[in-house]
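Hi C.,

You asked whether I'd gotten around to modeling the 144-residue construct. I have! Everything is below, sequence then structure, no commentary in between.
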Amino acid sequence: MRVSPNLPRLATTVAMLVLAAGVGVWGAILLAPSPPPAPPSAVSDGSLRTDTRPVADWFGTGAGARIQVVVAGLIAAGPRGSAVLAIDGRPPRAYAVGSRLAEGVTLAEVRGTGIVLDQGGERVEIAAAKLPPADGIRSVSAAR
């Protein structure tokens, strides 16, 4: 006796098993209990405030903190001058006199030899790097 599979009946059985598995999975997902609400925060109204300024000044991050300034170039000197500065290792960019470089630090003055910063009321002078003389180029003074 030869047994031949009944293909439509087998396909129906497999389809019913897949449908039952899908209904079971989605039923478990959709009917799962919701998580409990989060506990209320310890300070909900923000009444607990602390002043961290003394600690920040102690570690050098307050308004009087020093920044690292490298003079990359001087564009113009005088009260309307500007300079190219690299601040705290960032790429250089141009700043005009009076520009704020960091909290409590402004560019106070641009001179022909460097810059002057105002750091928390203290004036700090930073000289521009002198370029080495170029080979083969000599300065010639005008003959009179």
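If it helps when you're writing up: The chain has a mean pLDDT of 79.

Thanks,
B.
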